[in-house]
Amino acid sequence: MRCSVYIAVSLDGFIARADGGIDWLRIVEEPGEDYGYARFFASVDAIVFGRKTYETALGFSPWPYAGKRCVVLTSGTRESKHGEQFYSGDPAPLLARLASEGVKRVYVDGGTVVRQILAAGLVSDITLSVIPVLLGDGIKLFGALGHDIRLDLASSRSFKSGLVQSEYRVHKS
User: Considering only Cβ atoms within 10 Å of each terminal Cβ, which end of the chain, N or C, has fewer?
Assistant: First the structure.
């Protein structure tokens, strides 16, 4: 099974404002341009994300993950609104279970969840879209991982909006 990260960050490495706001992503919105997201989304079977990312997504209409199996990593209990499942604990057994159930590719989203799954050595690839804005504060994508994680650049391209997107494969020693 392949675990993939597809995420946008500010130039200074934040995925959201301190209050969780992502309004700054709008500065790169261009008619007809989705920066490859639709193609990526079509290639995933399931999404594993954290509670904060889930709560942000609940505010979108329509539900952005329709038709995909969704698992929210959270220590609390919640009521499912769109058929999503909730999971508490180490993500490795969850990912093993998803693989045994035929899931081929998982979209990993949310800062804490990305860090957990990356630190566990379970992320295969990362698509990172850098937005040309400095937020100065907010929710960081990367933090302490416990060890270095080497990445191999697969591709990189820039767009007229100023967004720079790089695709990396996690280096397997």
Answer: C
